[in-house]
Design brief:
The complex is a heterodimer. Chain A contains six helices and six strands, in the order αββαβαβββααα. By secondary structure, chain A is α/β, with parallel strands linked by helices. In chain A, helix 2 crosses helix 4. By secondary structure, chain B is mainly beta. Chain B has a single domain, classed as Beta Barrel (Porin), CATH 2.40.160.20. Helices cover about 5% and strands about 60% of the residues of chain B. Chain B is built from one helix and ten strands; from the N terminus they run αββββββββββ. Chain B is elongated and about 65 Å long. Classes of the chains: A alpha/beta, B mainly beta. Chains A and B meet through helix 1, helix 5 and helix 6 of A and helix 1, strand 4, strand 5, strand 6 and strand 7 of B.
Amino acid sequence: MKQLILLLISFKSYAFFLITNNGAAFNSNKVKIYISSNSTCTNAGWTKSDILNMAVDGAKDTWNKVGRADITVKKGGEYNTSDGDFLTGELCVADSDTTCAAGTVPKVSNIIIACNNNGTNFPSNSVLAISAPNNISGTKIRGSVILLNDRADSQLGSFSKSEMEKILAHEIGHALGIGHSEDKDAFMYHTEIQNKSKLAKDDIYALSHLYPYSIDDMSCLGFLGSINYPSNKNYWNNGLMALSIGFLSIILALSFFQYAWARLSNNQQKV
Amino acid sequence: MKILILALFCFHLHASSWHDLELGLGQFYELPYQTSNSESQIFQLSPVILSKIAYNLNDSWELNPLFSWVIYQEHENSSSNQNIFIPQLNATYKYNQELHFTIGTSVVIYSTSGDATEEELPNGTGETTYFSPSERRNSYQQNLNLGFNYQFDQYTFNFDSYSYKLFNSELREVSLLFSFTKIFEIN
């Protein structure tokens, strides 16, 4: 009982962080994820197809389930390239004012996964993967790269499929613009990611901060999840209209049931 | 359409029918995100300040415009903070003098902000600079409200649930609000 009371009054604070100082995010609410065609991933211990499927499944189980954030990660396929810098280049986190040196991982669109063995990216085999937007324009992310450790001593092959999905979901979080969290329960905490079962509130708030639903996106009867009201920039026609029509629908439904109940009761009395 | 909605809302509106103002405190639970990686999240304190007003429609029904503010704590390093604002409109069915059932709809506003600070956090074998938000952003969600309240003397115990995308198993979100309010009669 004492423990329960202590838990009930425990304060918990949040501290999500972002990759960029201006809260950069993808401009589209659907981002595709690809794997570079020239990756062999021999040392990483997984096939390209496995890695792509695990990344998509990881995103589906985490980021795609956040109802209050307007972002969906979808499967792309193979990203056709013969550029060896995907496999050996250093990751350069670049905004529009930054020029990356030659030999760094090329700027991309959407999210590209590659198996990489660069010693600066992966100074030891304890670094499983790194990820960051590498094509940013102002507050818009145009593309991000996820690099998986493909050193000869890579540990990635020792993880189960479920653990790999979580590791890749963490990296997709970075690709979407979310930094590490100080909350040990968060998916975006810097370690022990494979032991997390689902997103924590800290992750949810970070994603909804980067990809919020605007008042213009609100749908009529949105709580049912199916009926979309045409979106435009008119405040009344969206937010207030959604609230009003939703409420009136409930009242009408209640009136109908009350009427039906009264009729049913009358009929029973007559019998 | 606007006129039709306004007409429906204004129909029967008489000043004398506004009868109770309620102010209170409560506790808010976001279920999908409080059953995960640690038990402490289940019992995390998320205090709520709320106010509602009652408008009598007839002997059995009243309207309840309501506003709730869920206050989350700022991190001690002042990095980011979150608040939830919930303007809502409920219809209340008075089953008897004490027990009332509510149904309605709300716009849940998830508001996040920060003070644009930088923080060095562990990353791989070293540390990386990350940033707290530099501006306030709001995400809007329309929810279905269901609940009940129990009145005794001048106080009410309220239980409210907020459902989002009820028929979508992937995106369904349910939040709960337990609250006590004090009734101030205004008519």
